[in-house]
Amino acid sequence: MYRRRKDGLEFLLVHPGGPFWKGKDAGAWTIPKGEIEAGEEALAAARREFAEELGFKPEGSFIELTPIKQKGGKTVWTCFEKTDSKSGSFS
Asked: Given CB 3.0 to 4.6 Å as the disulfide criterion, which of 34, 63, 76, 83 pairs with 49?
């Protein structure tokens, strides 16, 4: 999720939870992500995972980016939603 502000673009990042990430900030922040379930469309999975991780549903137009293959062989699909949120937070 991103938005344009007078100083430029802002992107929504999340911090992973769990004991491994407790107290770790450097290099930990990332975009919300998750697994695509069998038979699920990539965009539907992205919306579901976003809602599960952040507690609100992304609505609006989405920009699908080119999938990438990570070093470990996992393929990652990414999309961004533009938000018009004027508040200090994305929710």
From this structure: 34
